[in-house]
Write a structure and sequence with these properties.
By secondary structure, the protein is mainly alpha-helical. It is built from 15 helices and two strands. The chain starts with 7 loop residues before the first helix and ends in a 6-residue tail after the last helix.
Amino acid sequence: MANNTASPKTMESNHRVASVLATGLFVILCAFIAFPLLAGLLASFRPGRELVQNGLAINWDFSTMTLDNYKYLFGMGGDNSKVDSAKYFMWYKNSLILTILTVVLTLLVCYFIAYGLTMYKFRLQGFLFFLVIATMCVPFEILMLPLYQEVTALHIINTRAGVILPGLCGASTIFFFRQYMQSLPGALLDAARIDGCTEYGISVRIMMPITKPAFASMAILCAMGSWNNMLWPLLVFRDTSKFTLQIGLNTLLTPYGNNYDLLIAGSMFGIIPILVIYLIFQKYLIDGMTAGAVKG
């Protein structure tokens, strides 16, 4: 009888080939992802007219690179730049406040909804969760007009509440929390109740620290969604003083002239908060994944 078992050398060779192919694939994917970021970074150090003429390209001609765009961004390029710089950082502050409020409130609301749908057994539990999941199938373009009418009727148009409240109960965030909680041992709740812990204490003092990986992952995704959101804030906000960074940068694109010097530098500077949020919560994500709820 022929022996079909692969030899250790053959298995090692196959493993090495698979590792090389996987590494090559990820290098190609990283190159595709890094290209627009690197091209935008290089363009931010060149005059805006070059962006109009040549578009985004990786050109290492250091003779054309200057810090003029960033000087203009920080108001060091004359009186006009000080005006534009003040508007830019006003939009920047609005986006930061809106993102922080959205992330904190969304995570708290979705966590408690998922906690109730997971840890308690009651009638229509499955049906309610089905309704939550069903909302993921409805495009935002269909909900946009009813939401706008609702926000107008509640008299919260042109306010941060009008932007934040309609999206607090994110179906994907609730689903993620629920799926994570289902993998946790139910004995934790029973042990806490035996020790006299209240239901609120169980959810906040016991379950919430354990779900730190879910909070970290959803914080990154919610922050990215809120920071890059443009359509809904554009419908809600009326005053330019309340515009977010995305809306404000879009106002620089006009038929009468485009301020690409501020636009490209401001766009690259606007990436920083998302990078900071990712670096912060990545640490907690790794710590939470390596820490067990039940030790021993």
